[in-house]
Amino acid sequence: MPRRRKKIIDVASAIVLLALIMLDATMWRDIFDAVRSIGANNSAAREYVLPVTRASSTLLILPGGGTMLVDAGPDDAIVDDLQKTLPQGAPAYIDLAIIAAPEPNDYEGYQYLLQHYAVGAFIYNGRADGDHDVEWAQLISAITEKHIPMITVGAGDRIRWGASGAIIITAPDVAHAHSPNASDTAIFLLYNK
Predict the structure, then answer these.
(1) Inter-residue contact 62 to 74 (CB < 8 Å)
(2) If exposure means fewest CB atoms within 10 Å of the residue's CB, which of 6, 47, 97, 139 is most exposed?
(3) Residues with Cβ < 8 Å from 121, sequence gap 6 or more?
(4) Backbone angles phi, psi at 128, to 5 degrees
(5) Helix, strand or coil, per DSSP, at residue 12
(6) How much is the pTM?
(7) What is the mean pLDDT of the chain?
(8) Which fold has domain 43-192?
């Protein structure tokens, strides 16, 4: 009797393993299809999550080559990450730099970025960073010295590109814009193709 029971467990394990292999193959097929469609369709926005230190940063390359960088991490790693990600020969230029939240781990990398890249405009939530006044003041000073516009956005604002492309700002809304918790005031955005 114990021997037969072991066989049932082995058959069940084999069925589970086969199901997992099929799901894995399906997932990889979807990933490869998505990569192929991005390569074939230059009219789609491309998104790259950059591995900056202790934070996250996202580069969005819009149709037509426009670039948008959301956060830059806390140090100079952003410069190397952009050089590896942007196409060879691309100008050292970022169209829009977004400071999603006034947290040093998100924005201090912009100090280094400004030493290597020109920036068309900075977008932020309009809130000065009270907890980290020195770092924030240094960044604002660097932006001001380079005469880069700073644009305040909130929920409902849009950034348009091309005939139908848009980035929709979904937060912060009026209720959260002045929250004492800086993460409540973060800019969240959606983009459509």
Answers:
(1) no
(2) 6
(3) 95, 96, 97, 148, 149, 150, 151
(4) -80, 150
(5) helix
(6) 0.70
(7) 78
(8) Metallo-beta-lactamase; Chain A (3.60.15)
191 vs 160: CA distance, rounded Å: 10
Q: Tokens 């393993």 belong to which residue?
A: 17
H/E element, 167:
strand 165-171
> Do 137 and 152 contact (CB within 8 A), yes or no?
no
Both structure tokens of 193 = 């193709």
The type of residue at 160 is R
Question: Which residue ranges make up each domain of the chain?
Answer: 1-41, 43-192
CA of 48: how far to CAs of 38, 119, 146, 185, 193, in Å?
A: 12, 18, 26, 24, 16
Q: Are 107 and 99 in contact (CB under 8 A)?
A: yes
Phi-psi region of 75 (alpha: psi -120 to 50; beta: other; left: phi over 0): beta
**Burial class of 63 by CB neighbour count within 10 A (0 to 12, 13 to 18, 19+):** middle
pLDDT digits (tens, 9 = 90+) for 108-154: 889 999 999 999 999 888 876 555 678 888 899 999 999 999 988 88
Q: Residues 187, 101: contact at Cβ < 8 Å? A: yes
Report phi then psi at 125, rounded to 5.
Answer: -90, 5
